[in-house]
Amino acid sequence: MKLILGLFLSIFLVACSSNNLKENHKIFKYNESAGISSLDPAFAKDQANIWATAQLFNGLVQLNKDLAVQPAIAKRWDITADGKIYTFYLRTDVLFHQHELLSEEERIVTAHDFVYSFNRLTDAELASPGAWVLNNVKSYEALNDTSLRISLKTPFPPFLGLLSMPYCSVVPEEVVSQTNFRDEPIGTGPFHFQYWKDNVKLVMRKNPDYFEKGLPMLDAVSISFIKDKQAAFLSFLKGDLDFISGLDASYKDEVLTRNGTLQKNYQGKINMQSQPYLNTEYLGFLMDENNLSVTQQKLVRKAINYGFDRKKMITYLRNNIGTPALAGFVPKGLPSYTEDLDGYYYDPKKAKALLSEANIPFGTKIVLNTTSSYLDICEYIQNQLQEIGLIIKIEVSPPSTHRQMVATSKLDFFRGSWIADYADAENYLALFYSKNFCPKGPNYTHFKNEDFDAFYELAIQQTNDSIRYKLYQKMDQIILDEAAIVPLYYDQVIRFVQSDIQFFESNGMNMLSLKRVEKN
Length: 520
Description:
This protein has helices at 2-18, 47-56, 111-121, 159-163, 173-176, 229-237, 252-255, 298-306, 310-317, 348-357, 375-386, 399-407, 426-429, 450-459, 465-481, and strands spanning 27-31, 61-63, 69-71, 74-79, 85-90, 137-144, 147-152, 191-197, 201-206, 220-224, 243-245, 270-285, 323-324, 364-370, 390-396, 413-419, 485-498, 501-502, 518-519. The protein is an alpha+beta fold. The protein folds into 2 domains: 34-189, Alpha-Beta Complex (Dipeptide-binding Protein, domain 1); 277-493, Dipeptide-binding Protein, domain 3 (Roll), CATH 3.10.105.10. The strands form 6 sheets. Strands 11, 12, 13, 16 and 17 form a 5-stranded antiparallel β-sheet that branches. A hairpin with a 5-residue loop joins strand 4 and strand 5. The protein is globular.
């Protein structure tokens, strides 16, 4: 493997020196190994779809690299003192991409378009996975062409963050009603749709009428669909791709040192970006009364938490990309995150004592369900827990099957991950609110605690950030005290970028914003 990558590195260095003079340097190229299922923002439910639709569409607001809410189509907004009514004032220079079905050659976006877009998002017949975003919305109305009022049922401070999601993008009724919008998207974004062949190529061209003047800087975005991540990385080394996101086991040791820095062969040739990622990797327990597994006992769940070394796991399996989850479920990178929580550390003696107290015989078997992408981590935990007397049997399922079994409460002990939909800890703590039991909500563990629920209900109505953050921390401590999960690590965004790419910014939600990117 290293010999193959070494050969491609040599090719890569030659390509760098020749500078690929025949290539159009204003086309930004990246690969999407997972494929894209739809370009309709109402179905932007995973990273692949979100990255693509983010180039084509806009909503009322957007997030910057620090995850702060910024104006987008709404130039400003007012919020009533009780936190229930939001009035947005729209720009008057935002145009939909040109399309023969639009009523005007320069079709200006109005507040009525947002009313249509929200009605469509919540339409049961459309069955958008993003309909939940407006669950707390009581009503919305266009006061005129440039003013939109949204009323909430209860105060919800993270609401502006919800509106930044692609689900809430504005779309034109004239086009949606008469086309297959999945394949013919018309939005307002910095790029407009040109060509898409499933699993082959997707091309988006610069929008000359984009409302953020002077942007975008690129002429086009080209997306390929190489499924094999190792092959995609080799394509990046040859200069055929401008960036690679994430760290795959097939090349992590070749490109990174054990300490998480670029290997010498790559220094000065490519750039690496890294920062905290709002993603917590964890193991979850199903806590239903009809679950007969020994993991129903809190002492056993605590023993598992104490029974393996998270720091070594990150060092040897992740090349120090990520932070051991010693502080709770809410990840590093959110403002309410604190290291002051009483979490779990590696203590095999304590783990054995807890199992003894629970009368668990040495060699007790527990089934852990995972996917192939996380098999190495699960095997590491398996080996360490064997030393304290627990025999972990690992069962591997395809990702879609695994997700379905978790969502329908079919697994007693499972690997999970939670990537933030919006930049507020409520997004994580909602997984443990008793009224969110799956399949109606994201409480996959079926955790139920009266104190937790009371704090949660207080927090989502609290507009004072510092008070709300204290409530979040109390809830996170309850999750730890009850050992509802096994926090593994807080992830990091890691991107490898060609050296001729400038102003390529990342953020804690691993968003892809290309409107300011320049390619020399």
